């Protein structure tokens, strides 16, 4: 067996993503912690390197975690502000004790020839053929992206049932009515519903694309949520479905496993669920 270094794994996957639009000087994708020149023993993909994900990685005898989102609680994974923080120090110690490497794979995924996070969602929902092309001339990044879908008309009740089952969710939050219908859907995964630079962008998208339904990851309650709620309260056929950041992007991370395994055949590649950040209190 050829000895393969973690750095070689990272390079192969980055190249394999064929992310032509990537800004190499400003990407958040980098080795977050660990020695990337060590031999790889196993690979874990996950939405986020939580403590539980780290423990499961150790159990699997893997030493490379490929995470979509940050390890150090901020978008650019800056850790200087945390040097004396007890949570940071203990997490870092755990990672170092087991010689793990954490690599962030975010921008390359979204900039891939086909956005790999959306690809995972499309595959799970069987929505590949319903995806519409964005308007490359638009100033609104949400309108430029391929995030709108013309799906066969369905009720919100049925759509929520399918989403709950396919994404393995305990509860699904929504605004609107289960009796409403869905056929023009905007998929605002991850942080997209925050607007990608301008919080007005999601509402402009709903209007210009005549969307009846938006499916969102992270949300702000006084922007798109308030807009969809007002629209619904005035009798319009508008629905918002809220998955949370983790559930909306996680299938993207599980569905890249076969692709990574095809690139890196010598060591096992696993997916580890990061799980929603919340518990639900029922009584
Ligand atoms: Zn993402």
From TrEMBL:
The answer to whether UniProt assigns keyword Chaperone to this entry is no
Keyword annotations: Hydrolase, Metal-binding
Q: Which GO terms describe its cellular component?
A: cytoplasm
Keyword Ribosomal protein included in the entry's annotation:
no
GO MF annotations in UniProt: hydrolase activity; metal ion binding
Q: Which domain of life is it from?
A: Bacteria
Q: Binding residues for a divalent metal cation, per the UniProt record?
A: 68, 115, 245, 249
Instruction: List, alphabetically, the Gene3D superfamilies matched.
Output: NIF3 (NGG1p interacting factor 3)-like
- InterPro entries to which the protein is assigned, alphabetical: DUF34/NIF3, DUF34/NIF3_sf
Q: Which family does it belong to?
A: Belongs to the GTP cyclohydrolase I type 2/NIF3 family.
Q: What is this protein called?
A: GTP cyclohydrolase 1 type 2 homolog
| Native source organism of the sequence | Pelagirhabdus alkalitolerans
């Amino acid at each position: 067996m050829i000895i393969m270094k973690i750095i070689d794994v990272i390079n192969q996957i980055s190249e394999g993503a064929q992310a032509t639009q990537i800004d190499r000087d400003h990407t958040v994708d980098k080795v977050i912690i660990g020695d990337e020149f060590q031999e790889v023993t196993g690979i874990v993909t996950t939405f986020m390197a939580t403590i539980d994900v780290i423990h499961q990685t150790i159990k699997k005898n893997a030493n490379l975690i490929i995470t979509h989102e940050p390890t150090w609680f901020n978008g650019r994974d800056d850790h200087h502000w945390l040097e004396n923080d007890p949570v940071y120090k203990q997490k870092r110690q755990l990672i170092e004790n087991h010689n793990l490497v954490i690599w962030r794979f975010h921008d390359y995924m979204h900039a891939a020839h086909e956005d790999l996070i959306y690809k995972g969602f499309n595959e799970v929902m069987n929505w590949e053929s319903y995806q519409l092309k964005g308007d490359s001339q638009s100033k609104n990044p949400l309108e430029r992206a391929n995030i709108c879908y013309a799906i066969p008309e369905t009720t919100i009740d049925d759509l929520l049932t399918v989403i709950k089952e396919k994404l393995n969710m305990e509860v699904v939050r929504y605004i609107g009515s289960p009796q409403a219908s869905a056929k023009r859907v905007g998929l605002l995964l991850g942080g997209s519903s925050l607007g990608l630079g301008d919080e007005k962008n999601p509402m402009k998208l709903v209007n210009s694309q005549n969307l009846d339904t938006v499916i969102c990851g992270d949300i702000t309650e006084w922007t798109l949520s308030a807009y969809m709620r007002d629209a619904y309260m005035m009798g319009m056929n508008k629905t918002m479905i809220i998955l949370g950041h983790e559930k909306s992007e996680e299938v993207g991370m599980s569905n890249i496993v076969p692709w990574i395994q095809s690139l890196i055949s010598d060591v096992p590649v696993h997916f580890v669920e990061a799980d929603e950040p919340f518990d639900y209190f029922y009584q």
